[in-house]
Amino acid sequence: MVIALDLKGIACSTGAACSSGAVEPSHVLTAIGLPPEDARATLRLSLGHQTTDEEIDFALEMIPPVIYRLRQMSRHIRNL
Q: Which phi and psi angles does 79 have, rounded to 5°?
């Protein structure tokens, strides 16, 4: 998903901003009770003062079709 969104121009990460490159699940997500397997499956999108409404709208428009496409691919692979 990170690669698919990057190709759309949306920057995101699967880990906490403070632990770039770590393979362990986010300590913040596990501290709030998320199981490690769910914490590893999260996606982080960061916003800042310079983030525009248009950029947020674009991300909200792009994310659902990416999820749909990846789910379709996953179903296809499971059926092979």
A: -90, 0
Residue 12 CB neighbour total at 10 angstroms? 15
Question: In this structure, are residues 66 and 8 in contact, taking their beta carbons and an 8 Å threshold?
Answer: yes
The one-digit pLDDT tens for each residue of the chain (80 residues) are: 999 999 999 999 887 766 666 677 888 889 999 999 998 888 889 999 999 999 999 999 999 999 999 999 998 888 87
Asked if 44 and 13 touch (Cβ cutoff 8 Å), the reply is yes
Q: Is 18 a catalytic residue?
A: yes
Which of the residues 3, 8, 18, 20 is marked catalytic?
18
Give the global pTM.
Answer: 0.76
